[in-house]
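Let us practice reading a record.
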Amino acid sequence: MRRVWYVVIVTVVVCIFAMIVMPEVTSQANAILQGPSPTATVAASATPTASTVPATATGSTPTASTAAGTVTPLTSTPVVITATPIVVTATPIIITATPLTATATPIVVTATPTAVPPTTTTVPAGVGLPTTGRTRRAEIRFMTEAMDTNQIAVDLANDCLTKAQDSQVLALCQQMSAAHTTDIQQLHDVLLSTYQVDYLPTSMTTLQKMSSTPAATMSAAVGTTPNGPGVVLALTSLQGTSYDVAWLEAMMDIHNDLVAGVNRVLNFPINATLRTTVQNMRTTATSEIGTMQSMIARLGGNQ
């Protein structure tokens, strides 16, 4: 930008100089060049006589002549022209930009909820809704007792994993541990979702940690019924085939108890979810009872 200004300034100075000075110089030069050459008249005689002849000249500079016939050159005074420089000062233009500040005003939208009238649904009795009265008590009692029985089956299966000798019995132990753990979780979920009762059984290992009673005498305290923790302690002194047969018999008793409990609760108009769950449990338990009876016969346990 500064170079542009410098070019503009120089151009202006040159133009002014040309308009002011050059016409005067041209005029002076023309006046000098157009003037007539000086002439001199000299008398021609044998003896030259000096005479002064007035000089006729055009212009401001006179010419001289001498009698000797020699012409004295005219001397012109040089014209000195002094050009006064013109100084042009460019004042810089400063432009200040003022930032614009925009403030956004938030728009608040208030939504008024629309009340939706409740929908009334008619559900047949015993389907998907918690029951009341005796049926309610029967359902809760069955689910808690069935979870306890399944927990004894899990404890018994875990004990078998470390003591069983027969390979088929060992494989059945692994199957029972997984299956009865699943049954406990299913019963827990139905009880919680239907009646908001959060119940889980306590394992034999936890009972031993909670009690100060030695394991050898705990069987007398808890009993030896198939659905009690004592059934596990009753097997502690057995080994080999004797353990395998005794374990199968104890597990059969637990399954018979489960089937009997299912048959009792199905006499009530229980809700559809629980009915489906316990019917599947009864089918599985009945099949496992038949498998264990065959194993006992193979191991000579019927003698």
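A brief commentary: Helices lie at 2-34, 133-163, 167-195, 204-210, 215-222, 230-233, 240-265, 272-298.
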